[in-house]
Structures are given as structure tokens and as C-alpha cells.
Target: Glutamyl-tRNA(Gln) amidotransferase subunit A
Amino acid sequence: MDLTRLSAAELSERLIAGTVTSVEVTQAHLDRMSAVEPAVHAFLYTNAEEALAVAADVDTRRAAGEELHPLAGVPIAVKDVVVTRGMPTTAGSKILEGWVPPYDATIVERIRAARMPILGKTNMDEFAMGSSTEHSAYGNTHNPWDLTRIPGGSGGGSAAAVAAYEAPLAIGTDTGGSIRQPGAVTGTVGVKPTYGGVSRYGLIAMASSLDQAGPVTRTVLDAALLHEVIGGHDARDSTSIDEPLPGLVEAARKGAARDLTGLRIGVVKELSGEGYQAGVEARFHESLEMLTAMGATVVEVSCPNFDYALGAYYLIMPSEASSNLAKFDGMRFGLRVEPDEGPVTAERVMAATRGQGFGDEVKRRIILGTYALSAGYYDAYYGSAQKVRTLIQRDFDAAFEQVDVLVSPTAPTTAFPLGAKLDDPLAMYLNDIATIPANLAGVPGISVPNGLSDDGLPVGFQVLAPAKADDRLYLVGAALESACEAAWGAPLLAQAPELEVNR
Model:
């Protein structure tokens, strides 16, 4: 039995039953990492010694009859934008190379409290700025379906690690689609929870009003299980929702029964058509037919202000990033570069450090954001973008008065070749056209694999729900997943070509 091919839920059942040990499970994933990492490059740091120590402790406690969390002993990978005590946390940037935080993010505290071995930190676009994981200062991550193609971004490392069977579970972050879009192009499940539903304490911020951490998994049930570990109120995050999570695991199990009688599903008119790959649209309409066959009512819904979401996002996000990244100044932590000649002043050290420490995409967004916030332009750019954001939120409110969930393709195309869009930022930004509205409004979204396009690469189906109704994502997502797997005879990832690995 290949332990790396089991879902987190299946591993949990075997660990609780005592048919496998956490050490065996963790070592199997570490061995898989050793075999495929030279080809995939999903990880920036491997945490083998600590992971095995946690696994051994779980086995000892279970053997002694101690009651443990259901996911105790199931390993996990963590995106490198999430602060982890005792492990390097770089956010994919040279400016934080070698920085080892003295504290854990709330997410990591909860993972540790559940006694889940942390396998390591995953690669990402620098400071989460990108849609392809080509903007990492530490090299590209490759899509396990086709190593010449991108794994999505910014969280391509987490998605690739799960798709390549290096980890059953991973943590990602989603500011404009950075969990869902990698999920779509790697054939994995990615969830952006309601804004405030998972603590941001200990996330290295890009855009504080948009950032949200969430699960990256191979099944909808696994995502629900992980979401219930990391979610819930945190007093250290002022934006955290002080309410219990809805029953996410219960909703996923109910959805797997494939009964959606009475559910109203809205197809967003503005998230289809020109620019969407033919195979993406074909799989989307096939999925709608499956949902209808399960009893759901499918109608078209118009959200006219979604047409302006991309422009508003690329003013709000860089403006907040410009402010958040001001702390990386070469003075307090991380990289420090002194000028080659002349006086060593604070201004010159800051300029030298930021000049060498930040990559081109980060510099591009800082410049854009600083300009949008500058005197004389604030109202015209940042202020106007916030007004558009309000209109998008109103579109969602009006839509959810008519339907229970909204759906669309997750990404307009399948994974494109590495390097294909690096010289065209706008073409790169358009990858997130379907995912950005949810971040602007703070509503939750999920991407579920729903087949292969004509090029043999994975496609994702996006479900959006009202704020704090994350359980609806898992109900619909699990129903579609179950119907698709029944039609295919196996999970989508079983159709992926086997990776060439080092033996």
C-alpha cells in the first residue's frame, strides 16, 4: 500500500485503527519528497527531523490510549508566507533569506496543537505576488501534470506538493485567487474561506483587506477537515469573525450523497465567454448538467460590476502592499545591504537593500501602489477603486438574494508553459479574473477539479457562497466531486502521468 496515495481522511482512519503509524506515514511522504523534489521543486525547506519527532510522539500517545485530534499524525505542508517558529520563513523573497521567526502564526499553533507533523515550507511567488510561482527568488515550481508548465500562483508550491503526492494536506493563502487558481491548474481542491474566518495573525501581509489563508487538498472532505482545524476566532486578529464555524465536515459528507434538491445555483454571466479556453467552458457546462441531475436549479445571474474587478483589485492590492512592505527596510530584520561607496545613511541602506532584496514584480507593484496613494492621485485611483469594490459587494448581495451559491470556471485557461507570460504582466494578471471578485467582497470560494481540457490538463470549477456560509462550498463541492469521480471511475489525479523520479 502506497501511503502517499491515501487521502487525509483515509490516513486518519488507519492511524486511529492502528493499522499504520504516523512515523510510517510521515516517512513515506518524506521519501516521496526526496524522490520528486528535484523535478517539482515544491518545497523551500524540509522539516524532516521535527516532523518525525512529532509523528513518534503521536504514535506513543495513541498507543497509551490518549484521545487525539482526528488529524493527529497526518502530515502537512505550509506555504512560506506563514510564520513558523524555528523554520526559515522567506515569503519567497531574498529580502527575508535565512529569517527564522521566534513565534508561530495562529494557523501553525492550531496545526501543532492537533499534532500534525509539518513536512516543510512550500515555494511561492515573492510576497504572494504572481499567478505562476515564477516570481520566487528561489526558482520555479513545476506542475506535476507537465513539468514544462506552471503550477499556478502565488501558492504553486502547496498545490504542486499535494498534486505530486508529497503531502496529503497543505496551507495556502489567497489574496486574489492564489489558492483556487493553483488548485484549478493542478487538479487539486483549493478553498478561500470567508474573510476573517481563518486568522491572519502571523501571515506576512501583502494586502491586509484581501489576504486569507485556507486549505489545499486532494479531496473536498480533506479540505473541510483541515478548515475546521485552522478556522475560528482569534483575538489577536482584529478582523477575525467572533462566531463558530458552520458544520463544514458535516456539509462535505452530506454533499457526497449527491442530493442537491432545492438548491439554487447561479451561473455568473460575466465570468465566461471571450478569453475562456474552449475545453474549460465545455467541462464547466458538463458540470452544470451533473448538478442539475442531482436536483439543483441552475439559472444565469448578472453581476455587472465584476467587469471592473480586475482594475479595482490592481489598485487596491498594490496600494496595501506598498504600505505593508515598507517594513522591509534593512534595519530591523532580514537582508541588509550597505551602499558600495559614500556615507552609510538610513535612506541609502534602505534603497540598497530594497533594490537588491525585492524582485521585479514586487517592485512593479510597490511603485504602482505608491503612485495610487500619492497626493493628487489618491481619490482618482485608490478612492475610486474602493467605490468599485462596494459596487461588487452589492452585486454579490443582490445575486445571493436570488440563489444559494454562484459558480464559474476557476481559471480561464489550463496551465500555460513556464515563461510564456513573464514579459506580459497584464496577460499574467488576467489569470485571476474569475477569482478576484470573491476577495474584494470577502466571500468564500472553492475550486474543485472537474475534468481535463482538450490539452489533457486539469480544469477547475469554482463555487462562491455568501460570507460565513462556507458550508455551502463543501456541500456543492463534494456533490460535484462525487459525481465526477463516479463518471471517471477514479479521482482526477489518478489520470495524471507518473512523474520521473529519483530512485
Residues 162 and 335 are 31 Å apart (CA to CA). The first helix runs from residue 8 to 17. The radius of gyration is 22 Å. The chain is about 40% helix and 10% strand.
